[in-house]
Each structure stands twice: as C-alpha cells, then as structure tokens.
Design goal:
The chain is an all-beta fold. The protein has a domain of about 35 residues. It has a four-stranded antiparallel beta sheet with strand order 1-4-2-3, with no helix packed on it. The radius of gyration is 10 Å and the shape is globular. The mean pLDDT is about 95. The chain binds zinc ion. Zinc ion binds next to loops.
Length: about 55
C-alpha cells in the first residue's frame, strides 16, 4: 500500500499526487504544505503517483 499524506503536512518529494477521494492528480513541490483538493473533497488524502525524475 502506498503512503497517504494529510492536507497541511509537508510534501516529502516533488511529483504527481492524486486525491484519494476524487482521484484528481496534481503536481506539488517538495517542502510546501499539501493543499486542499481543488474539488474540496474535505477528508481526502494525497497519494504519491509519480516522483519527479532526478
Ligand atoms: Zn478530491
């Protein structure tokens, strides 16, 4: 099972994440807080889909 991250916690790695509720993907930068889902799902978490290539 892949790790899930709460809204407001720090993004551990830059890459593509998706909302565990609506599955909408978005790209986040390392060190920023995870935002709320653009669809305002509420209790969603973010799941890492694809890390940036290094
Ligand atoms: Zn969502």
């Amino acid at each position: 099972m892949k790790p899930h991250f709460k809204i407001g916690t720090e993004v551990p790695e830059s890459g593509i994440y998706w909302c565990t509720v609506c599955m909408t993907p978005d790209r986040f930068e390392k060190g920023r807080p995870f935002p709320d889902c653009r669809n305002l799902c509420g209790k969603c978490h973010w799941e890492l889909v694809e890390k940036d290539q290094k």
